Amino acid sequence: MAAEQKVARLATESNTTQATAQATDTARETLQAGASQAAKASEGVLRSAEDAMEFGRGNLEAITQAAQTYFAGAQDLGRQTLALMQQLQEEAMQNARSLATVRSIKDATEMQTSFGRQTMEKLLSETSRLQEASFRLAEQSTAPIAQRMTLAMERMSRTSPSA
């Protein structure tokens, strides 16, 4: 009976050794798979963070470009408005000198009416031109931000799950 016990004990030890080896192999494979998945996940997170930083940098550049365009355009519009006011003032002074030389009230009335009409026509025309320039400036200065918003919407639609 001692031989049978020895054989049974050897069989048990052999099964235990094999089971231990299999368990060790399975644990190693599981750990390696987990480490590989963790590495892939961390690469994805790092890539996403880099993408987000790059996108934020692009947004800041767009805002800077929009502000520069706006301020340069606003200065130009201011100069144009000032030039118009100076021109109107010079014309008013010239017409005042002309009025000083008239000999009758009828001539003065006609001259003043003509001056008023010319001034109004010029003022309306120049105001329309300045208004159009203001609209163009608004479009130009908001264009970089609108482009970034479009890009953001495109990126969101690519990354969002389909319905």
UniProtKB/TrEMBL annotation:
All residue ranges annotated as the Phasin domain in the record: 50-149
**Protein's name in the database:** Phasin family protein
- Taxonomically, which superkingdom? Bacteria
Q: InterPro entries, from UniProt?
A: Phasin, Phasin_subfam-1
Q: Which organism was this protein described from? A: Roseomonas elaeocarpi
Q: Where is the composition biased (Low complexity)?
A: 11-25
Q: Lineage from the top down?
A: Bacteria, Pseudomonadati, Pseudomonadota, Alphaproteobacteria, Acetobacterales
Residue ranges, annotated region (Disordered): 1-42
